[in-house]
C-alpha cells in the first residue's frame, strides 16, 4: 500500500501545549497575525503566508480547493456517547455553522437521542441485584467556536486526492439528562408508612462546557464528511440523583449543585456548504 | 448438307450467345434482388461477378455502384471506398452516372473514418468542375483541395478553397482552422485569432472536436506570443486541460512567455514540472537551455552551470543511440515505422536511450494517421474473414484484401518517411542545443556575462500582470493555497509550481 502522507500548509499546532484551551487561545492570537492568504497579495512580495514559506525554494501557489469563508454549513450526523458503561446513547444531530473565514467559525449543534440499556446492566441486576446510577443523555444543545489550524490533502492509492481540514472546537450549552429513578433506587417498602415515594422520572437540563476536535473530508466543492470527538462536562445538581430527596434534605445533608459529569461523544456526519 | 450444318452451327452459336447474355442480365437482376432483400454479402458477390464479367458498360457501371453500396451496408467502409474511388477518379463523364453520388459517399465515409490524406489527394487529381461537385460533398472536396494547396504552400489558393467549404459541413471547422493558420502566416494576426475563436465557439462542448479545440487554443496562444502579448498567450495556454496530450506543450511554451515578461520564478516553476519524474521520458531538451538563461538573467551563475551539466548528463548518452537509430533506418522507412510501432506496443529492445525521441515520434500526426489507417484496415480484414467467407471463388475477397493490404502498406511507407524526417529534425535540434550549451559555458568561462545577457535581453513586454501557479493570473477575490515542495512530487501539483528565488543581479551591482 502506498504511504498516505498528509501535506499541511498551515501547521500551527504546538506540540508543547497540552491544554486545548491554551491551544485555542494561542491560535486566536496567532490568527490576528496571519490572516487567510488573500489573492490581493502579490505572491512575489512579502506577506504573512509568503513569510511562512520564505525558506521554501519551490512552492505551489494556486486557488484554494475548498473555500469556507463566509459560507454556511448545514449538516446531519449520528452522535454516540462512548463512556457510559451501562447504556448505549445514540443521538441524531443537526449542525449549523457559519464560517467567518477559513479558520474561524461559529457552530451550533443540537442532538436528540435515545438510550438503550446494555446487557451488563441487566446482568448486574438479575444476578447480583445491583442497580446502577445512569446518566441518560436525552439532548445536547451547544454553541461553539471552531478553529481550523490544518488544511491538508491525502492521496489515495488510486491516485485520487482527498482534501481535509482539522479543527478544534470549544463551546457552551446545555445537556438534558433523563432521570429514571427505578434504574438505581430501591422501590419504597409498601409496609413502611414513612417511606418516601421515588421522585417522578424527569429530564433536567444542566450547563455544559465542551471541547473537541474533528476533521472534514471534502468530497467535492460543496460537500464534506465529518468526524469528530468531543469532551463535554456538565454540572448537575446532586440532589437530582437522590432517591429520597425530601428525607435527605430533612436530615440536613448537603448536596453540591455543580458536580461535574463528563461525557465523550464521537460524531460521524455529512455536511453541505452554501 | 454442308449448308445445313453451317446453319445449325450458326444457330447454336447465336442461341448460346443469347442465353449467355440473358444469364448475365439475370445476374445483375439477381444482384439487385439480393440487395433489395438486404442480403448484402450475396449481393456484393453477385455485383462483383457482373462488374468483372459483363461486356455491357452500363451494366458494369451499375454493378460497380451496387458493389460499393453492398460493401458499405456490410460495414466494410474502407472496402467500399475502393469502388467509390474508382468511380470518382473516372471523372464527371456521361457514361459515369454515379460520379456525384460516389463523391458524396466518400465524403460521408471520410467524416466517420479517415481515408487518409494521400488517398484523398490522389482522388482529386482528376479535374472536377465546381458544378459537378454535389452540395453535400462540397465540404469534403474543397477541404481537401485546400489541404493539398496548403501542403504545396499555395496559401492564397488554399484559403480560397477553404472559403468554399459550406457552413454546416463537417469539414467547416477544419477549414476555418486552416484559414486561421494561413492568416497568421500572412501576418494577419487579428484575423487569425478571430478564425480560431470561431473554431472554439463551434467546438465547445463537442467532445469529438476536442483535439481541434485544443489546437485552436494553442494557436491563439501562439499568435499572441508572436505579437508579444505574453499575458494573453499565457491565459490561452492555461485553458488546455490537464489530461490533454497538449498540456505539457502548453506548460513548456508558456515558460517562454513568462520569461519574456520577466516572471522568472514562473518560468522555473514550469520547467520544474517538465523535469518531474512524471515526464522523464518526454522530449523537452530546450527546457535546460531556458532554465540556464533564466538563471543567467537572475545572475545565478552556479545554477547556470548546473543546468548545463544536467543537460549534458541527460542527453550525452542519448546522442549515440539517436545517431545509431537514424543510421540504421536510413532508406528503410517501413522498418523505422515498425520500430516505433514496437515501441508503442512495449517491445523495444534496441536504442533504449533514444526513448524520449521515439516516444515523441510516436505522437506526431503522420504516425497517428497511419495507426488509424492500420487499425481500420485490420478491423476490415478481420471482418472479411467472416463476412467474406461465403463468397465463392474468392475473387472479390482477393480484390478487397489486396486493396486493404496495399492501403496499409502505403500508409506505413508514407508515415515511415515522414516520421524519419521528423526524427532527423529532433536529432539536429539536439545537436544545435548542445552547441548552445557549449557557447553559454564558454562565454561564462571567458567572463563575457554582459554580452551573453545582452543576447537574451528582454523587450518592453507588459510585465505588470501577476501570475500564480497553473498559468493563472492573480485574481483579487481568490483565496490561495500554498504547498511547499519538499522533494516529493504530487501529481495534482504539477503545473502549479512557482519558484521563490530572488535575482542576485542587484546584490552583485551593490557589492561592486
Description:
The complex is a heterodimer of chains A (274) and B (512). Chain A has 274 residues and is mainly beta. Chain A has four helices and ten strands. An eight-stranded antiparallel barrel of chain A has the order 3-4-5-6-7-8-9-10. The radius of gyration of chain A is 24 Å and the shape is elongated. Helix content of chain B is 69%, strand content 2%. Chain B starts with a helix and ends with a helix. About 3% of the residues of chain B have low confidence. Chains A and B meet through helix 2, strand 2 and strand 6 of A and helix 14, strand 1 and strand 2 of B. Strand 2 of chain A pairs antiparallel with strand 2 of chain B, so a sheet runs across the interface.
User: Briefly, what CATH class of chain B?
Assistant: Mainly Alpha
Straight-line N-to-C gap of chain B: 131 Å
Helix content of chain A: 10-25%
* Count of distinct structural domains of chain B: 1
SSE string of chain A: EHHEEEEHEEEEHE
How do the strands line up in the largest sheet of chain A? 3-4-5-6-7-8-9-10
Q: How many β strands of chain A by DSSP?
A: 10
Radius of gyration of chain A equals 24 Å
Q: Whole-number radius of gyration of chain B?
A: 31 Å
CATH topology of chain B: Serine Threonine Protein Phosphatase 5, Tetratricopeptide repeat
Structural class call of chain B reads mainly alpha
Total strand segments of chain B: 2
Residue stretches of chain B low in confidence (pLDDT < 50, at least 5 long) are: 11-26
Domains of chain A, number: 2
Mean pLDDT of chain A: 78
CATH level-four homologous superfamily name of chain B: Tetratricopeptide repeat domain
Give the oligomeric state. heterodimer
Distance between the terminal alpha carbons of chain A, to the nearest Å? 36 Å
Instruction: Outline the biggest β-sheet of chain A.
Output: 8 strands, antiparallel, barrel
- Helix-strand pattern of chain B: HHHHHHHHHHHHHHHHHHHHHEEH
What is the CATH class of the largest domain in chain A? Mainly Beta
